[in-house]
Amino acid sequence: MTSTQDTSRRWLTPKSPLTGMDAGTVPVTDPGEVAAVVDRSRQAFGNWGFMTHAERKPYLRAFAKHVLKSMDRIAAVIVSETGKNLGDAHAELIGTMTSLDFYSRHAADLLKRKKGGSWPFLVTRGWTEYHPIGVAGIISPWNYPFYLPTLTAIQALAAGCTVVIKPSELTPLSGQLIEDLAIEAGMPDGVVQVVHGDGATGAALAESDTDIIAFTGSSEVGKKIAAQAATTLKPILLELGGKDAQIVLEDANVKDAARAAVTFGVWNGGQQCVAIERVYVVADVYDEFMREATKAIKQLTAATNDHRDIGPFISPDQAEVCKQQLAEAVGKGARVVAGGSKIATDHGIYFEPTLVENVDHSMALMQDETFGPLIPVMKVADQEEALALANDSSYGLHGSVWTRNKRRGHEIASQMKTGTIAVNDHLINFLYPTIKFGGIGESGLNGQLGEEGIKAFTIHRSITSARFRPTTKLLGAWMPRRVGPRYWKTLARILFGWRR
User: Would residue 239 show up in a list of annotated catalytic residues for this protein?
Assistant: First the structure.
């Protein structure tokens, strides 16, 4: 950025939630300018999209290596915009590097031609090819401002797409870094571009001539994008809200389960879609769980700038959501075990890490996404009640089961109505690039990661080729008809009757 700003255009100037100081500036992309950016991306696709995987791989590897080399620089920008702990910012980059490394190395294998079986048409060969869909529009949130857009972008880029990224207006500097680092790493011109602005700019990107839109954010906005995309049947990827459940059974390692509840209930200030937002503990171990969870949460702090600190909210609005949900729950009989207060300081808006019991499903705290460091715990009679309550949600993004019996854990995980589940862990699925991550219900549509993630940015072409003469001709299907119903019934019995 130059120090002299163009006064003819608007600028975004994010402020640090920690200090209130300006973190930097980026120029706003007027909604009317988005189409030209997408057109430039389309032109770049004319080269990038028709490269072989082998030709694209050096660019992707160079980008991954440059991100690794730039970790301190990236983390500093993340902290300046979000106020999160510096260590947490570096942890965010572990997830980033995991996906960058995986897709830059394995795109060719993931998208190789898939051969189809030929039975019963043995004289025909068939296969499916995967080709890049084109220009991918990526709209990303503020809570993981570098990881989330980069995660989506690397899958699109590895598939052969070009990308236009619209980061949150609250964290534009982290988003801009993706384009800057790609250029510095030698990525061809126009392959990675970033546009900036508020919802109007995001809407312009969603409505533009992109070939696919990938959105991460609220369920409310995701539904609007889905409705708009439906008018043209444009493919979409939606990763939306969550109300992730933790089930703790009587044979669990209770200390680990309690520590996990606290860790992943307050990590990133609770501002993540894969946070533990409701806990169901079997009665036999409930008291032990609450002792361990209380001990763990009381070791955490807010607004002290200590290394154990829970960072500030990026926006005061989310602190009000926490305050209102907690007040409503307490009014209905919930009890605050630890924490419970909003903290306003000269260097940010915080909410104490909060543990709550005596909750039930009549409370918003157990039904609506919180996005803050509140951990409600409910005592249940047994496994069946825990599973039924965990599945009583309009969301379905992530969840976890805690038991020493792994087979039991796997069986319960298979019955949870959510896109991803961890047994004796939490959140790791979002850092595990070889299997799909995605939600159901209000939590999203389609998904990312794994083979499915990269294939989402492709179109498939399924091709057949006659080995000798046309199979349909050999079958007797050509006009004028020479065979009738008796022939087709006999043929069906010959081909399939022996399989009974």
Answer: yes
